[in-house]
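In this supplementary section we document a worked example of the pipeline. Step one takes a protein sequence of length 169 as its only input; no multiple sequence alignment statistics are reported here. Step two produces a three-dimensional model, which step three serialises into structure tokens for compact storage. The input and output of this example are shown verbatim.
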Amino acid sequence: MNRRTALGVLVALLGAGAVQAQNAPVVVYLVRHAEKADDGRDPPLSDAGRVRADELTRVLGTAGITKVWSTSYQRTSSTAAPLAASLHLDVTPYDPSKLTEFATLLRATPGRHLVVGHSNTTPELVRALGGDPGAVIPDWEYDRLYVVVIGPGGTTAVQLRYGAPSVAK
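The serialised model returned by step three reads:
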């Protein structure tokens, strides 16, 4: 099964049509912001980054996202904005320096969340939620998508890819 098919199957299984029980798991999708235009302090997305943000909307548009979170940087909020707009949701800011507290909030908030962060904070948030983030996200990588499912039986984390593959520079 190729990665696009695997991602489609996972999103369908966790999708909006799934039965929502009282003890339904909290599902958190986590990504690093899409490609940035430059290496400045708060750059906008590049053309490739805008394409990736649109691809994230395509991939997660039917996943039943109920809340969209982003740090306050342009590159993160611009990555989250297309999906939030398509679902008529606000993008809620979170403080990436308080990941333990944010993880506690996510665990306690029912629903399905998209969290857009950074190469250093996204794996740390996966860890704070109880998942294994795998390898460090290198500066050139933008296609990693984590799915963390927090249920009564524990936490499961899966690492997938979306959009055009990132290539080492």
